[in-house]
Amino acid sequence: SIAILLYLVRKFKTPDHWYPSDLQKRARVDEYLSWQHVNIRGKGSKVFLTKVLLPLLTGQPLPPEKLEGIIEELNVVLKQFEEKFLQDKPFIVGSEVSLADLVALVELMQPVGAGYDLFEDRPKLAEWRRRVEEAVGKQLFQEAHEGILNIKNF
């Protein structure tokens, strides 16, 4: 949860870029963390639930027209994310990766794991993903997402 992440950042005095001491930068992180719950998390999780979990539970795939509507909802918030939060910056807060970037990318990996490559036709988003992965470490990032990226094999 966001609350435990903020607790950990404070308790272990992580490098400043994760949760900046500069109030304006911190406000950008907080803004994203507040926005993402019903937007990126809400819409991305819905894609994952309908493409992966519901078919597993019911034995039936979701009708294509319903899935299209859910994908369109996610596409709307992805556009908002690019325009409002990324703009023309390398990361959400500016030139350094932050907790906001990490939370955003983790949430976006759910639809990817469900088989919807939301980075495919979004070069700005794909470049941002590459930068975040590099900042975290590609191997660590892949290890952390191994389960979700292989969920279809379940």
Automatic annotation (TrEMBL):
SUPFAM superfamilies, A to Z: GST C-terminal domain-like
Record EC number: 2.5.1.18
Matches recorded under CDD domains: GST_C_Theta
Gene name per UniProt: Gstt1_1
GO cellular component term, pick one: cytoplasm
Catalytic activity: RX + glutathione = an S-substituted glutathione + a halide anion + H(+)
Subcellular location per the Swiss-Prot or TrEMBL entry: Cytoplasm
InterPro entries: Glutathione-S-Trfase_C-like, Glutathione-S-Trfase_C_sf, GST_C, GST_C_Theta, GST_Theta
Keywords: Cytoplasm, Transferase
Keyword flag DNA-binding: no
Domain of life where this protein originates: Eukaryota
Subunit record text: Homodimer.
Xref: PANTHER family: GLUTATHIONE S-TRANSFERASE THETA-1 (PTHR43917:SF9), PTHR43917
Domain GST C-terminal: 22-154
GO terms of molecular function: glutathione transferase activity
Gene3D superfamilies documented for this protein: 1.20.1050.10
Family recorded in the similarity comment: Belongs to the GST superfamily. Theta family.
Transferase recorded as keyword: yes
Protein name stated in the entry: glutathione transferase
Example GO BP: glutathione metabolic process
